[in-house]
Write a structure and sequence with these properties.
The complex is a heterodimer of chains A (398) and B (290).
Chain A lengths: L1 H12 L12 E7 L6 H19 L9 E7 L4 H13 L5 E3 L4 H13 L4 E3 L5 H4 L6 E3 L4 H4 L1 H10 L5 E6 L4 H14 L4 E7 L7 H10 L3 E5 L2 H13 L6 E4 L7 H7 L8 E4 L10 H12 L8 H20 L4 H8 L4 E4 L2 E4 L12 E6 L2 E6 L21
Parallel strand pairs in A: 1-2, 1-3, 3-4, 4-5, 6-7, 6-8, 8-9
Antiparallel strand pairs in A: 10-13, 11-12, 13-14
Chain B lengths: L1 H30 L6 H19 L3 H24 L6 H24 L14 E4 L2 E4 H23 L1 H11 L1 H6 L4 H26 L7 H15 L4 H21 L2 H18 L7 H6 L1
Antiparallel strand pairs in B: 1-2
Helix pairs in contact in B: 1-5, 1-8, 1-9, 1-10, 2-3, 2-4, 2-8, 2-9, 3-8, 5-6, 5-8, 6-8, 9-10, 10-11
The chains are: A alpha/beta (398), B mainly alpha (290).
Chain lengths: 398, 290
């Protein structure tokens, strides 16, 4: 019994290169949220990884070997995500692991991967708490939280006179830093905070917060939302007959048709949302990813969630790095990812800072204009549309 | 003015929470089952309304003519097929059975509707009535009126009809009720049916005021249980008062302080009330006295 435990412990602690045979498929372990609070985004994340695997398998796989995804559902639970990665590494003996959805889950997931000597490349866990762990094995291919809305804040400060701003955010380890990043910048540039409300994840009634925002008469409203509360806030602000000049939400307006259906097409115009990706981007492999995604899952390009691209990007960086080191060794992979190399992804260039953040990320800002989510900022990157500086009143057309 | 608006919001939203919690408290009162499936049954009600609205353009309120009887039958079917056959440890086993029922329903909903969020976006979901500077959202006004109507109807059924007397007799002493010729199985089946039917009505409003998927039930069930505990197990009036109290406390704290403390404050109030009245505001003792 003791011998078996020792053997198991030795086997797991030193097993940082997976144990699959060298001619079989490369197995990638992933935990995604297919139920619970993150189920919508979790599904998109899964589709992103599946699109990447399908694309890469059609282009030689990794190290000439086919990619096989081993996907487990974590029910949006930080406890289950730990169990899942532990199982993927110690029982399924995957070669690599990539990240789950959200900062909430990436933090414990990266810690458990680190314990077993595994690298965790991820695209949807950029909250400060992930990088504050001091781990060397976590690499975020997307723009981290505090920078997500910085492009918006810079635009606002440059194009609007200082005016009152109302802020509200879910107490989420990604959303709140995202909001606070914008707030710090705007406060430093003379924009006073009229309202600053934080609400817990389980909130289902947003009417009092919306009422407080409406009562403040702030002309700029910035919300750190997930899609359900993002939709609800718009509905509540419309009920309150309050239409701010500028409205930006961290998430929700990026959900394409689901957003339009939830808030009504005539209420979308002028609403802004940050994102790390958009379907028309000319970045590396983006057109191919969009085409393949539509073939695999249907829909339209504008309805593809950014989660798909973020997951796909994690796969792309893993591919480039593993092919370069010509090995499935996680320790070699970690060293290479820390070597100041620039990778390419559908979200643009990726170059890791010592803490694992992507120092080369370019956060974009999007705005709903004439029923389409348009790339508007930053100016000079790609071919963005001009920003609609003042949001039309509710119901004033798509 | 903002506090007054928060109180109005709390009262209006509390009305439809009472509908969702009403079924839960009724089922416990008669059958002594904590129906852990109530959250997902509310979501099922929301999905039924969504399906009727999006595929057949039937207004969700009008659609209750279909969804309420359908959910009532589901409740009765669940009783006869799963609760009635339990012979031993009935209370505990029933609790587990309802948990299993909830899990199965969640899986089926995920399969049919996927995990993408949906919302019932009717023409009146964004409209509201203004009285001075106060706002009364139409959907909440309609929902509140419907809640009062349905809860009032259920109250009438319980306290002014022969069935109600049978039900209350079963609630007080099932063995004695059987001895005087009351078919307690049918009373229990009808009670579960009514409880599930109320969830259909609550779900219809929930679906119009929240984007939802099957997982939305988890946030709901904890709130519904808190309402039922505060109001007193088995008391419809208690559920209504507790719902309104919960939402008013949360909304007022949210506007004057922080939404993060809204729920905490409510739970502090809940604990204080339970210290003074362990049976809840209008718990079983109070119900029996009526």
């Amino acid at each position: 019994m003791v011998a078996a435990l020792v053997a198991a412990a030795c086997g797991s602690s030193g097993s940082s290169s997976g144990s699959g045979n060298s001619s079989g498929p490369i197995t990638i372990g992933i935990s995604v949220s297919l139920s619970g609070d993150f189920s919508g985004d979790g599904l998109a994340t899964k589709q992103g990884y599946e699109t990447w695997a399908a694309y890469q398998n059609a282009h030689g796989g990794i190290l000439g070997r086919k990619i096989k995804l081993d996907i487990l559902s974590d029910g949006s639970s930080p406890t289950q995500v730990v169990t899942n990665y532990q199982k993927l590494i110690t029982v399924s003996h995957v070669n690599f692991v990539v990240g789950p959805y959200s900062t909430l889950l990436t933090k414990p997931a990266s810690a458990i991967a680190n314990r077993y000597g595994f690298v965790m490349i991820e695209g949807i866990g950029g909250g400060p708490s992930v990088f504050q762990q001091g781990l060397k094995n976590v690499f975020d291919v997307s723009a981290s939280a505090k920078f997500q809305m910085i492009t918006f804040a810079k635009w606002l400060a440059a194009n609007h006179k200082p005016e009152k701003v109302a802020y509200a955010s879910m107490t989420d380890p990604f959303l709140q830093p995202e909001l606070d990043g914008a707030r710090s910048y705007l406060t430093a540039h003379g924009f006073p905070s009229a309202v600053y409300k934080l609400y817990p994840l389980e909130t289902t009634d947003y009417t009092p917060i919306a009422s407080a925002i409406a009562a403040s008469k702030a002309q700029v409203v910035v919300l750190g939302t997930m899609p359900p509360d993002g939709y609800a806030f718009i509905q509540d602000l419309i009920q309150d007959k309050y239409s701010p000049q500028v409205l930006a939400e961290a998430s929700g307006p990026d959900q394409g048709a689901a957003f339009v259906k939830a808030v009504g097409a005539s209420n979308t115009s002028g609403i802004m949302v940050p994102n790390t990706w958009f379907p028309g981007s000319t970045f590396y492999q983006n057109a191919a990813m969009v085409q393949l995604y539509l073939k695999m899952f249907g829909g339209t390009a504008n309805n593809i969630s950014a989660d798909v691209a973020e997951a796909f990007s994690a796969g792309e960086v893993l591919t480039q790095a593993a092919d370069h080191i010509k090995s499935t060794s996680n320790s070699k992979l970690e060293s290479y990812l820390h070597s100041n190399v620039t990778f390419q992804s559908v979200q643009g260039p990726v170059k890791f800072l010592p803490d694992g953040e992507n120092g080369a990320a370019t956060p974009f800002m999007f705005q709903w204009q004439q029923g389409t989510l348009q790339d508007v900022l930053p100016a000079g990157v790609g071919s963005p549309k001009p920003v609609m500086a003042v949001k039309p009143a509710w119901g004033a057309g798509a | 003015m903002l506090v007054l608006q928060a109180i109005i919001d709390g009262v209006l939203v509390g009305g439809f929470y009472a509908l969702m919690a009403g079924g839960l408290t009724l089922v416990f009162g008669v059958m002594e089952i904590v129906n852990f499936a109530q959250g997902i049954l509310v979501v099922l009600g929301a999905y039924l309304s969504y399906a009727l609205y999006s595929h057949l353009s039937i207004d969700p309120f009008l659609g209750l003519v279909i969804t309420v009887p359908a959910m009532f039958l589901i409740g009765i079917a669940v009783y006869w097929s799963m609760i009635k056959p339990i012979k031993q440890e009935r209370v505990i086993m029933s609790l587990l059975v309802m948990f299993a029922v909830g899990t199965v329903i969640e899986g089926v909903l995920d399969l049919i509707f996927t995990s993408n969020l949906v919302e019932i976006h009717t023409s009146y979901v964004n409209t509201s009535v203004s009285v001075g500077r106060l706002i009364f959202p139409d959907v909440y006004l309609f929902a509140f009126a419907m809640s009062i109507l349905l809860l009032g109807g259920t109250y009438y059924l319980l306290y002014r009809t022969r069935f109600g007397r049978s039900l209350r007799a079963t609630m007080q002493n099932p063995t004695a009720a059987r001895l005087v010729g009351i078919n307690t199985d049918w009373v229990s089946a009808f009670t579960l049916g009514i409880g599930v039917a109320l969830a259909a009505a609550g779900g219809m409003v929930f679906g119009q005021t929240n984007s939802f998927d099957a997982a939305s039930s988890y946030d709901l069930i904890s709130r519904l249980l808190a309402i039922v505990i505060l109001g007193g197990f088995g008391s419809l009036g208690g559920a209504l008062i507790a719902s309104i109290l919960m939402l008013v406390i949360q909304d007022v704290v949210a506007v004057v302080w922080s939404p993060t403390w809204g729920q905490t404050t409510f739970y502090i109030v809940l604990v204080l009330v339970l210290l003074l009245r362990p049976q809840g505001l209008l718990g079983r003792k109070a119900v029996r006295a009526q």
